Amino acid sequence: MAVTAAAATLAPGPSHQRRAGWGPWLFLTPMLGWLLLFVVVPTLMLVVISFCERDSLGRVIFTFSTENYVRAFDWMWLKILGISVWYAFLTTVICLLLGYPVAYFIGRSSERVRGLLIMLVMIPFWTSFLVRTYAWISILSQEGLLNAALTSMRIVSEPIGFLYTPFAVVLGLVYNFLPFMILPIYTSVEKLDNSLIEAAYDLGARPARVFGQIVLPLTQPGIAAGILLVFVPAIAMFAITTLMGGGTNPTIGEVIQNQFTKARNQPFGAALGVLLLVIFIFSLWLSTKFRRAEEQ
Amino acid sequence: MKKHTTLLSAAIAGAMLLAGCGKKDDTLNLFVWTEYVPQAVLDKFTEETGIKVAMETYSSNEEMTQKLFAGGGNYDLIQPSEYTVEALIKDNYLQPLDHAKIPNLKNLAPEFREMPFDPGNKYSVPWLSGFVGITYNAETIPGPVVGYSDVFTANNAGRIVTLDDSRELVSWAMTASGLPINDVTDENLEKIKPLLQDWMSKIKVFDSDSPKTSLSNGDVDIGVIWSGEGAILFNQNPKFQWVLPAEGFHMFIDSLAIPKTAKNKEMAEEFINFILRPDIGKMILDEFPYYSPNAEARKLLSDAERNNPASYPPGLDITKALLFKDVGAQGSKVDELITSLKVQ
Amino acid sequence: MTSSNEFAPVLPARRWWLPRGPAIQRVFFGTWTAGVFAFLYIPILLLVFYSFNDSKLNLQWVGFTTKWYGLLLQNEVLIRAFQNSLIVACVTTVLSVVIGTSAAWLLYRYRFPAQQTLGLLIFIPMVMPEVLMGVSLLVLFVNLGLPLGYTTLIIAHTTFCFPFVLVGVQARLQGIDPALEEAALDLGATPLKAFWLVIVPYLMPAIIAGALMAFTLSFDEYIVTVFTSGADSQTLPLKVYGMVRVGLNPQLNALSTLFIGATALLVIASQVFSRNKST
Q1: Model pTM?
Q2: Which residue of C has its CA nearest to A258?
Q3: Nearest to B69 among A59, A79, A134 (CB)
């Protein structure tokens, strides 16, 4: 208990913030400018486009219309959005379960080994994702490696159709996002003060208790970051889901992509995208409000 | 401090790159399908004429028109499919070709000279064409496979791959129902909905990029795919038989055209003339086993290539081939129909 | 140090390759990590394997050959695309790290008006579907009169990469000891110097992690690249996407093998040769 109190003093409250003088403002301005020009302006353009119509060739006509938003609230698109969120959620949970122990192991390793291991985590992802995904396809296909191994070891009598199923989709997503979970958690683990942990052991705590009451809370920022960096991009993912899933269960990313290609309906695609942004920003705002209330 | 110097040097580097990118008027800018123009052809063109060629690629007609309309680059040649050519002509987006500069037009096969979307090749010259048909693993699927009704059977459920193209899927359903494929009215879409629903419940994989993958991996046994893919499969293993659907099949034609905003019209025409040569046509066919509109190039084909049933279907009556017309805004309804059926 | 508690961790002085903690923990986490690494590397090993396979389609083993490597070295277009990807990824990484780290620190240390809004704005590039970002940036660039090429590509990539760095650094900043900066300031350093000499080294693991993420994201980015690149800045993903239509060429496998092999060797070499650093 004394240990947890000690741990708590390491996390300062909002009193760490100072008022900004001209110096910090000078440094913030370039970033503000970048944000404004390359994030805010394009987003505003998208909002504008989402209220427009389009001609037969797919070019945007600037007449005001809310038709796209009305259309977007159809059950079909909401169902697709729901499926995408569900996949993203599954992916995040599995990445967390798989990745945390790895991040812990690497973070607690000696300095020399640490650097090596963290690079080794990333290196497989410096191949093109298409090449990696097709490698998985050749592993999971009916005449592929996995089935060959299973049948030759007599575990199954017939090849199993692993591919083009939700299992394959989640596997592809987890494979793609795993490093983005491991890396942030690793940075939190790495700064764990060893004396705290040793003190806990000296006081007679069992490893499980030490883990649950000290390590986990202290690595919580890393976990939160990892969840954010996996869950959010995973929702809008489309290429991997299409390849591994066989295109049978479209994700919201795929649908939006379609609007810009075959459906020739940019405004509708923009509307769906804006909705996605709104949902996300709203939930983020909710969660900060929640955290604020908790802190008080 | 460090941040400022880094930003500054990045800006300077950027400015230098921009300045360097200024002079491109002596380069021919191609905007073409990915993996459709062999690098060897471009190299040979540069070798013989001294004109440098820059190539940008896209993987769908709409991607191309998006970038074109946004004004993103100054392209001298584009490679639209037949319905896009039609739309672009209607919109006055293409420059008429000067046939005097393209004497090799005489090498074109007669059926490709008076195409409904561009009679007389006023604005476009066909590059390659192909069909959409049925390929099946003869070892696992007992014949005979003759048409769509033989594909979407209860036996084949879960073993089918098709293109991931809503327009294609709808057109097959319409052909099978005896409706004209370009009559994409709301009424007709309603009529074919039950048939499509039945079909789509049996399809395992939708793939327009590489449908051959699932077939050669053994995850599916039968599919409705591009003829080029079928040809590659046949070359890999003759167990992959090819047949054009008896109910009706459709043909696609990709052509070269010069957009209004092109800067190097004459260089573009020279390139078109170049690729119409029989030896260059043959080079193209060596890499992409599609149906060649170049009659002279076809004469240079090897027997094995000519006998590939997917590239050159035996007994082909090309007048029976259906062509897509541009359906404009209805494309969106088509896409929505297919998406809704996928989600169910 | 010494204790009768059997759970007390033993730190073996000479076995530097093992992490701290009781043996059971080490075995458990170590095995788990090995398993995950196996999962990560199985497709890679397959890639390497097939790069020596004498067959155009990656299916059955036909025979050993190095011809794909030979062909690769002559494939100027592919090599050029690879170089472009590398250049863009490297510059993007540098820019993302700079912007992401300084922004994370500024937002943490100082109170700016509308701080919450700023924080939310930063997330937009992460959540926006790539096609939307690509198209909107394309329209922006065209309207600004910027020709499409390296510059526009790097701007586009940096825009969606830097939030990843920022989030990672922010996580590391939570729970930082304020005494760190205070001590430096007490010794007479300007806030800038304090940041550079004290905070940045503390943040280094997060910065490196962010750099790795940014590099990976940029190197492999397809959709945004489609809309914001020009003819002379065609990157590897663009080339690869197209190759799918005719079947993924084993030259790609050869390229991946070479790149991964080179990087792995570099990393191992740098670790081995930094023995002089105190553990």
Answers
A1: 0.85
A2: C131
A3: A59
